[in-house]
Amino acid sequence: MFELNRIGLVHIELTNKCNAACPSCARNVFGKTIPWLVPRELYLEDIKRIFTDSSFNKSYPTRVKYCGNYGDPCVSRDIIEIVQWFKQTDKLNMREQIINTNGGMKNREFWKNLALEFKKEDNCGYVTFSIDGLEDTNHLYRKNVKWEKVWENLNTFVENGGNATWEFLVFGHNKHQVEEARKIAESLGVHFDPKRPLGFDTSGQLNSIASIPTYDRHGRYEYSLVSENSEINGVYIDESRIGERHTPPDKPYKREFLATDAEKEYAKNTTINCKSICGTYEKSHNFYLTSSGHILPCCFMHGSLESSAYNYSSHQLQNAVNLEDFNTATKSVDEILTSDQMFDTFFKNMNSKTLEDGKLLFCADHCGEGVPMDLLYKERDINE
Ligand SMILES: C[S@@+](CC[C@H](N)C(=O)[O-])C[C@H]1O[C@@H](n2cnc3c(N)ncnc32)[C@H](O)[C@@H]1O
Ligand code: SF4
Ligand code: SF4
């Protein structure tokens, strides 16, 4: 259960708005933004209101990470003011701040001003640019991101002294560019971090999904993405899908899912090592704040809570969680983190043996042994 004197990471989704349309992102379905996603944003006033009553340990070093599930923090209006507020607040002992962005929005002035808040020599954090390839490949996953824009923004940030990381999701279509990108990053003085993307796995089975279909903004099948392990180099067109056209539903699907025998067995044999409270990596306690002002133990589950359930794991999670129990509009951060609802929903049954006993398959999938999430978080990372 959360202990307020060991809060080591506050992960904030500042907004659910984004300029991009990455195929595996929770904000998209069949190439379009999910229709029920109401645009939301936390402004400076919201952040002050939410954190003003918190009573975290002032001598425990805490990181603030701006990332999220449904949007890009750099699209938000007040990001620079919020970074500045966290620098000077006495609400926590700021260790560093971290931003994750596709980098393809706003102008030179914004990126210059952001760099001034993340000066390398100040050692106060860094901005991670999610750039999955080079000029001819980045847009294959980072749909709608214009190369000229992200390249200008990264360079403006670096030229103004900003501390940057280049995070590169490695797929079949960009694996041949990893070493070239690494060299470019080195020449810019930017930390380079290639990562294995999620989306090619199912419960307990790595690499069980051969390809990820992508759609244009009219819902028409375009091409399929493959993992770096594939024999296919590049994206490919799946003949059997040509002509497929999908219209997303206007609200999340309500479908019942039953756990398969394999899922039941997997859950039974998996020990959950919660990454939010003393998980595999650090002895600190970490939590996540959504752009709607709700607190969850981790960012992982947010993508399954506001989308259609797509398997037993997400279905079970949606049934278990009542988001309103964790709403900062009605309760303080301290109250929510230490509440019975937080304990009962996420932690009480974590060490149970079976799904029938309330063990969450979602938690087994994300914090069991040898899960895809561990392969994603392996280098210079929030959980190192
Ligand atoms: C939803 S994004 C929000 C932050 C920002 N919009 C961005 O993309 O960097 C959260 C993180 O998920 C990463 N991400 C996106 N698609 C992914 C995938 N298929 N596998 C693993 N990480 C992914 C992004 O690169 C980012 O670091
Ligand atoms: S840039 Fe981030 S938030 Fe935007 S669509 Fe891609 S993964 Fe999602
Ligand atoms: S998925 Fe479950 S076990 Fe993993 S960090 Fe989140 S709450 Fe903890």
Number of helices: 13
Any idea of the CATH topology of the domain at 4-101 and 198-260 and 283-308 and 321-350? TIM Barrel
Largest sheet: 8 strands, mixed
Task: Write down the CATH class of the domain at 4-101 and 198-260 and 283-308 and 321-350.
Answer: Alpha Beta
Q: How would you characterize the overall build of this protein?
A:
- This protein has helices at residues 44-52, 79-88, 108-117, 138-141, 147-159, 178-188, 261-268, 302-305, 312-320, 333-337, 340-347, 361-367, 372-376, and strands spanning 7-12, 28-29, 32-33, 61-66, 93-101, 125-130, 164-169, 191-195, 211-215, 221-226, 285-289, 295-296.
- It has 13 helices and 12 strands.
- The chain starts with 6 loop residues before the first strand and ends in an 8-residue tail after the last helix.
- With 384 residues, it is of the alpha/beta class.
- α3 (108-117) runs parallel beside α5.
- The strands form 3 sheets. The protein has an 8-stranded mixed sheet. The chain has a two-stranded antiparallel sheet with strand order 2-3.
- It has a domain at 4-101 and 198-260 and 283-308 and 321-350: TIM Barrel.
- It binds S-adenosylmethionine and iron/sulfur cluster (SF4) (2 copies).
- S-adenosylmethionine is lined by residues 18, 22, 24-25, 67-69, 72, 100-102, 130, 167, 169, 197-199, 376.
What's the topology here?
Layout lengths: L6 E6 L15 E2 L2 E2 L10 H9 L8 E6 L12 H10 L4 E9 L6 H10 L7 E6 L7 H4 L5 H13 L4 E6 L8 H11 L2 E5 L15 E5 L5 E6 L34 H8 L16 E5 L5 E2 L5 H4 L6 H9 L12 H5 L2 H8 L13 H7 L4 H5 L8
Parallel strand pairs: 1-4, 1-11, 4-5, 5-6, 6-7, 7-8
Antiparallel strand pairs: 2-3, 9-10, 11-12
The chain binds S-adenosylmethionine (SAM) and iron/sulfur cluster (SF4) (2 copies).
The site of S-adenosylmethionine has 18 residues, from strand 5 and strand 7.
